[in-house]
Structures are given as C-alpha cells and as structure tokens.
Amino acid sequence: MSIPKVKNTPWLAFSIDRSSKKPVFEQICEALRHSIVSGSLAEGATLPPTRVLATELGVSRSTTVTAYEQLVAEGYLQSRRGSGFQVCAVGEADLAVEPEAGGLQQDEELVKPPLPFEAGQPDMRLFPHRQWAKAVARVCRVSPQSMLMGGPAAGNFELRKAVAAHVAEWRGIEASPHQIIITAGSTDALDLCLRVLTQRGDGIGLEDPGYGPLRHFARFHGLEPSFLEIDEQGARLPEADVELRTVILTPSHQFPLGGAMSPSRRQEFISWARAAGAWVIEDDYDSEFRYAGRPIPAMAGFDRLHRVIYAGSFSKIFSNSLRLGYVIVPEPLLEQFRAVMARSGLRASYMPQQALAEFMHSGEFYRHLRRVRRTYGERRKFLLDRLTRDFSGAGWFRDHQAGMQTVLHLHSSLSDKDIARRAAALGVAVQPLSNASAGGGHNGLVLGYCAFSEEEMAPALDILQRCLEEAASAAGS
Amino acid sequence: MSIPKVKNTPWLAFSIDRSSKKPVFEQICEALRHSIVSGSLAEGATLPPTRVLATELGVSRSTTVTAYEQLVAEGYLQSRRGSGFQVCAVGEADLAVEPEAGGLQQDEELVKPPLPFEAGQPDMRLFPHRQWAKAVARVCRVSPQSMLMGGPAAGNFELRKAVAAHVAEWRGIEASPHQIIITAGSTDALDLCLRVLTQRGDGIGLEDPGYGPLRHFARFHGLEPSFLEIDEQGARLPEADVELRTVILTPSHQFPLGGAMSPSRRQEFISWARAAGAWVIEDDYDSEFRYAGRPIPAMAGFDRLHRVIYAGSFSKIFSNSLRLGYVIVPEPLLEQFRAVMARSGLRASYMPQQALAEFMHSGEFYRHLRRVRRTYGERRKFLLDRLTRDFSGAGWFRDHQAGMQTVLHLHSSLSDKDIARRAAALGVAVQPLSNASAGGGHNGLVLGYCAFSEEEMAPALDILQRCLEEAASAAGS
C-alpha cells in the first residue's frame, strides 16, 4: 500500500508532506505562520475550528489543537473563549527575504601554527598531552561532579591550594588559598583588579614600552594612562604631580625589554603606594622562565601582599587555550574583590580546575615546566648566538637570561616598522618595538623564540638578515 | 655519625640549616637579601669572594657562585670584573613587617546549594555527570590535543557545527558554523557584541523590567540606557526622538515577566532597526525550556540574521560552571567581530569544547535536555498549583508555560522588598521584582523553580505564605 507523497489541502492553501521528518503539527504551524505573515490570513480572521481543520488535513484533532496553541504562545493567534482562534496583527510582510546564497565560506579561519618570531607563544608541541589527558580522565572517573558543580566563585579550592604552593616555591609569595582567585586568564585577572580598584576617570600608571593591549584595555575601563619610562632599574616612579591610584608593573621581567626591576626601585614603588594609598598590580606573566639561577622573587612576595596585588597566568607554562589565570589579593581587599565577583559572576571555567590541581600536585606540571625551560633555554641560546654572530651590524641586545622573547635594538638608521613589514611579506613575524611604546623613542624588533625549533628559526633568521641588509642599503642609497 | 643541626657562620651573621629542605644556595640568598634589606650589609659593601664564603660556610664554591649570581639577577648585588660582588642601593629597610597572624579564615566560602527560589539556576543534581565524564574521557583518549591546542579564536569547529544544528532545530535559525562564535558564557557574548557595535556615549535600549546586571554592564561600557517598557506584546519600541544604535531584547521569554514578544512587535523592531541602521541583540537565555508545544522560534530566525544578533548560552541547559555561550553574527558584521576578537584574544576555554560537541552529536545532550524539561515542568506545575491554591490573596501570576521562574505580582498593599527581606531571614530567597526595574511600578516576587524538588519547595512555600500573612497584617494594623 502506498501513501500519496503530497496531499493538497486547498482550503487553507497548504500541504502536509507526510514523507517529511518534520512533525505534522510543525508543518501546520509553519504554513499558518507563512499565511499570516504574507497577509493571506488577515488580522482578525477566524481560523477553522480545530476539529474541522483536523478533518480537512486528515490528522488527529490533538495535532491541530497543539498547532493552534503553539501559535497562540507565539502571538500569531489569539483564543477567545467561545469564538475560536483569530489572527493577531503581525505588521508588514517583508520577512519573506530569501536566504543569501552564502554556501562555502572563503574566509575559513584555518588553524595556523605561530610564525617565527611571534612573542609570548609557548610551544604546545612539547606539551605532555597524554599525561594531561590521563589527569583529566582520572577526574572523569573519580569525581566527575567536580567538573561542573559550581564551587566557590573564586575557584576550585584544590587548585587554589596548588597555586599557593606554586607561588610560595617559585615566586616567594606567602599567601593563603583564600587570597587566591582563579580567573579566565591574565587579562581577566587584570579586568577584575581594575573593576575593584579603579573608577572611570582615574589615572593609571603603565610601563612604556609595555604590553600594547594594556593601553586599550585601560582606556576601555575609562582610565587615563600615565606612562612610566623604563631605565636601568626598571619602570620609573610617577611624577610627583600625577595622581595615580594604581600602576601595573612587570617587575620580574619587564615586557618587552626584559630585565628585572631593582630591589631599590621596588622599594620605592612600595613606599610610594603606601604614601599615596595606591596599589601596585604586578603582572607576572612569564617569570617561571628563567634560564640561569632561580626565578626572581615576585614584588608581591617582597611586599608581603601589603600594597601589591599579584596577577599570574597558566597561559605561558600550560596553554593559552585553557583560559586560566589567578589573582592574589591582599587581605584588606578581599571583601571588595568578592563583592565585584558576586556582581560579575563566575569568571573561569570549572572544568579544567580539578585536573590542573592534580597535575600540579602530582609533579607532572613541574616536570613539564622544567622540560620546556630547558628547551626554551637552548632555543634562546641559539637565537642569541645568531644575533651576536650575524646581526651586530644592525643593532644590539641585552641578555636577561629570562622570558620568552628578546629585543634586538636597531640602529637609528633602520626603522623597526619597515623591517617588520619586509619580514612579514616573507612569512617572518617580528614585532616592532615602537608599537609597544606610547611615548616613542624605541626602535627594535621583539623576537619570541619559545615556540620555534632551531630548524624553524634558522631560515627565518636568514630572511630577517636579508631584510636588514636590504633596508640598510635602501637607507644608505 | 651525626650532623650538627645548625652551624653558625658568624662572619656574615647567618646560619645554614642543613636539616632544612630548602637548598643551601637558597638559604644563602635569603640571608644575604635580609642583610642587605635590613642595612647590615650597606650599599657599596664588597662581599667576600665566592671561594672564601664557600670555605666559611663549608659548602662548595659552585653553591656560593650560584647564590651570588642569583642576587645579581635580582638586583641586590652587582658584579664588577676584577673587584668581586658589591651591594646595590636597596632603599628604605621597612620591609621586615611580620606576616599577619592570619591563620584560619573565618569567611571560608562554603559551597552552598542554591536556596529556594533562586532564579536562573538549573538543578545540577539532575545532570548526567557520568555520561559527560565518559564524553570527556573519550576526548582524552582519542584527541587529547583538541583540549589545549589553540584552534580558531571563534571556537572549536565541531562545537560550532553542533550549535548550528541546535539552533536550526530548536530556535529556527539557519546559520553557518562560520557565523557562530563560542564565548565564555552569555555575559561574555554580550560584552563582545557591545564592543563591536557600540561606542562610549551611545544610547542602548534595555527592557524594563529586565535583567538587573545588564544595566550595570551597559553603564560599564559607557552606554546610556533607554528603558523600554513591557506591554502585552513585549518590549515597546524606543521613542521616536531617542537615538539608539542597539537594543537588547529577550523576545522568546521576557526576563523576568515571562511571555513571548508578539510577531508584530518583533516585526516592528526589525523594521525600526532597518530604518535606524540599528542592531537588535537577542538575549535568548533560557528558551529551550518550554513546557507546552515547541520552543518559540528566535527573533534571529524570524529576521534571518539581518538586523538581529543572537546570544545563546549553555549555562542553563548544561552548567554555569562550564562558562560557554555563543553569538550568532549576521554575515556583514563578521569581519568586525573577528577584528575585535583578534584584539581581545581567546574568550572561552577550549578544553570542554570538543567533548561538548560530541555530547551534542551523540544525543546525550538532548536526552538530558528533555529529561530536565520534564522535571522542571513538573516543578513548575507544583509551584503554580500552590500559588493558585494558597497565594491568590496576595497577588496574581500569569502562566507562560516556559522558562525557569515565574512572577507572583503582589497587591499594592504589600511591598516586594519587605517580603523578600522577611523570607531571606528565614532562608527563603525570593527576588523583588522592583529590583529588576529601573523605572519602578513593578511589585512582585520572582520565583525560580528549576533547582528545587517539590519536597524542597513545599516548606519554603509555607514560610513564604507566613511572610505574606505577617506582612499583610502588619500593613493592616
């Protein structure tokens, strides 16, 4: 026995397609919506009673009742007791726009590996994906709830304990897990700090040169940046006549110049903050990467969390894709941080937190950290050796034995933006130092080395060398 | 043979504790830092040669070299070729503040389950943690890299395909996965939209009553809110003399009043947006929860993504702790969205995305959604039955057969804030409707019912009933 494929129901001028996967009541809804929107069913028109329509369409009455009730809920129909269903006003009928041809997108965002010498990129090829997956799978087995059940807004307590142990050992900061708030990365950590500490129109001190996005970010918060120049000892203090309530510093490893702030300068900043009732936000973005000796203790440890708020991140050691960072908050500010968090809601995904805590406790995290530090150290040495050998004609660099990038300061006859443009055209990504500076006076190339093997850097350095030679001869001619 | 526990080395006045777990070179560093900061080693002082100190302390020379080099890196010492190591200036010595007594925190943030009738809370006890853990464990086994290797900034492509299928089926929106951007929850989705679409000082239309945090959020973006009152058809259009470039609407299920925007009002908004060159942001926060008929199609589907940007979330169906939401972007805006994302960086954690895509593809997601919808429907019915039976003296409600909360509108003799205060004192959380309104004129209680069993709601309703009676007699007296 064959069912006719399409049955026309001329009365309401629509058809039920019984071969369609779409439920019959949904087909009725669609047809009615279309008739109403196109105007073929006018405002105020009374629809056939459900029983009549059901007979007309050869469907059960409950199907037509469901369809009508759905359209009442959507506002296409109204139901008047005793007088059935009527069409509501629906406005202009210019909705029947055809969907755009669209089809395949030209601009598919392909997943591209970073180009040499993009800065701040860890090498995820070195990541112990299998061990991490094992840690996650263990959480799946042992405490699946911990991935999704909301814990404290400040984050999984095990992870906060692991962070407390980490910063005590690696950063010289004694903090209770209660002072630690897990955030969705370091930008989110800074966002939280600024929401707590600043008001629109406040001044804020930023290092110059510094991390470029920070300038936009501060302006987005309605803050007026004052730029703090960098000298031999690190960022300079704000001028006496500038009123600032916050400064953001990178004391362990200045971005992008490298180098640690001297203890005396740290002390001056802390004294200044005390006197001014101001706060120092320490952006400690990559200080686990030190290639000689121990990491330089954080300013927050030096100050014992009195006037310094510490912002750390897992993006560089672990992965940017995890979106996890943390803030360590001085006791007197805890209430204010909690109040802002209660308003703005949970920030970081809970899902990776328990696994990350176990990854840290088990030591896998530190095995990974030591392994990449060794590799990054070798890559750094390779880069600096090449710079010494082949680039001394173009400029100079200082070896700070730390971080994820180095700066090749260029002679004034060369323009960093010009070189960066030439290199980019040949697939080599170097950041002009001048872009990192608001005040100007800086001319150099920021070269990230962590994410690239020697085999990847070598040809990129050849290209860069050629760009510099061409630029020099263009300048000379 | 026994090692003496503490060996005094009077010359530099510090001791090496060989029983300590702290490495000897670190002990030397600490002692020297302390001597420098406290002033007992003055600026310019020359330190004993490494060989001499090594002999003094009974340690290897490499240990003292390591310690000195570390302190050079930290800026406490400087090394002059031929003249050894000297102390640098370190500023005032007021660092020796004792750590605060601290100890155990009084205010430990305990993990508390939500109180009845907190709104917008899913019941995570109903969540299929085991099935989710299985999906995650599968990713751990099959493609561990997908958890951490950065994919497109817009999110895991499999998840975006799953979202495209989801909104086609559930929300009536035809969108390509390329138009979908995964965000860190719905607030982040709105944040992204406002960054793209607005500039400081712009006007923005917000529903009144509406989601309270949105007002703060809009002001944080420097926007001037215009409030759109809600009538029978939904939010009203902005006054003709008010210039707005964006409005944020909840057309499928107005928050907090419930009820869907009528098709004619939707059409009016779309026509208005076209004429004004404005954009509608559709905040579709909980529309999968409809207890009769099919979900009401989204306004973005109605408009075919011409003037409507769609913001969805996994927080209500899945878990708030996952921090995942999404934006669906009209084609002509895609470039602008991508540009803003390139500046602000990755928003959502990659880690859950592949597992969530598989959870959706496998159908587990929808089994869960259907299961909770049934349970929430039963809880809703229980609550509304009790409201009808026992609360009609206090006010009235409308049954919109959708969402996660209902509003009990109170008679004007009762104050919603007063009732909420009385209930809160007895452990019952009801939100005053007046708090959700900027313009006032609303008096009611917002009652969330999804996260609470009938056994949990029953005593809370008894308490609420008592509060209303007491308030009524207090008002009468």
Low-confidence stretches of chain A: 1-11, 92-108
Number of domains of chain A: 3
Distance between the termini of chain A: 90 Å
Give the fraction of residues assigned to helices of chain A. 25-40%
Strand content of chain A: 5-15%
Q: Architecture of the largest domain in chain A, according to CATH?
A: 3-Layer(aba) Sandwich
Strand order of the largest sheet of chain A: 5-12-11-10-9-6-7-8
- How many DSSP E strands of chain A? 16
Secondary-structure class of chain A = alpha/beta
Overall pLDDT confidence of chain A: 86
**CATH fold descriptor of the largest domain in chain A:** Aspartate Aminotransferase, domain 2
Q: What characterizes the major β-sheet of chain A?
A: 8 strands, mixed
Protein described:
- In chain A, 39% of the residues lie in helices and 15% in strands.
- In chain A, strands 5-12-11-10-9-6-7-8 form an eight-stranded mixed sheet, with helices on both faces. In chain A, strands 13-14-16-15 form a four-stranded antiparallel sheet, covered by helices on one side.
- In chain A, a hairpin with a 3-residue loop joins strand 3 and strand 4 (84-87).
- Chain A has three domains: 1-111, Winged helix-like DNA-binding domain superfamily/Winged helix DNA-binding domain (Arc Repressor Mutant, subunit A), CATH 1.10.10; 143-364, Aspartate Aminotransferase, domain 2 (3-Layer(aba) Sandwich), CATH 3.40.640.10; 370-476, Alpha-Beta Complex (Aspartate Aminotransferase, domain 1), CATH 3.90.1150.10.
- By secondary structure, chain A is an alpha/beta fold.
- Chains A and B meet through helix 1, helix 3, helix 4, helix 5 and helix 9 of A and helix 1, helix 3, helix 4, helix 5 and helix 9 of B.
